[in-house]
Structures are given as structure tokens and as C-alpha cells.
């Protein structure tokens, strides 16, 4: 049992470490893969996907004037909040986390790219201004 707890602790530490070490500058470059459908920054508007200002800490499916899939709305209605960990899971495999989401993107398979893009997204407040 102690060994399992140590392994679980190590995995948690590594996972948390990845989020803490994300490089926002690299994430800005990775975000170009997302920019066809999503926007961030002052004046960001919904596109094919919702604008992502203030996404970390935001309730799922809560951007005004964006038509979410029923599956994503259900997640938001359940009180789901986008944490760095939840975003990491979603960005790795969107349809694996939210079946029937309308997001067609297959996901970011590289852990460092996910950490970097999450670090980049964290730099934007809900108003789109740099934090």
C-alpha cells in the first residue's frame, strides 16, 4: 500500500510539474494549431469554437453567444470547470473526454505542447488582457 501511495504521489508530482513548467512563449506558437477555430486576447470573438480568454477556471460551456454541442452544455450544466489538469486531458483527446463534442481537432499528443499551450492560455484574463 505504501508503495502504491508513493507511485501515485510521484505521478501527481510529475503531472503537476508539467503544468507549472509550461512555457507560454512556446505555447503561443503551439496555439497556432488552435487559432483557426479559437481566439484569445483583447477583442477576441467566437469563431468555429468559442474564444478562450480566461478558460482556466471558467465553467465549461459558459461563453455568451456561442452555440455549444449538447454534450459540452451538459458538462457545463454539471458544474464542470476547466482546470489546467482538465484542459490537459481534453487537449490530449477531446472526443475521449467529451464524446459527441463538435470539436473536430484530434488533440495535442505531446505532453509538453499541452503544458505550453495551457501556460499560454493562462496569460489571458476573462477580459482578454494579459495577466
From TrEMBL:
InterPro entries the UniProt entry points to: Cyt_c-like_dom, Cyt_c-like_dom_sf, Cyt_c_1A/1B
Molecular function per GO: electron transfer activity; heme binding; metal ion binding
UniProt-annotated location(s): Cell membrane
Keywords, in A-Z order: Cell membrane, Electron transport, Heme, Iron, Membrane, Metal-binding, Signal, Transmembrane, Transmembrane helix, Transport
A family per Pfam: Cytochrom_C
Cytochrome c domain sequence ranges: 22-125
Main location: membrane
Membrane topology (UniProt): Single-pass membrane protein
Secretion signal span: 1-20
Entry protein name: Cytochrome c
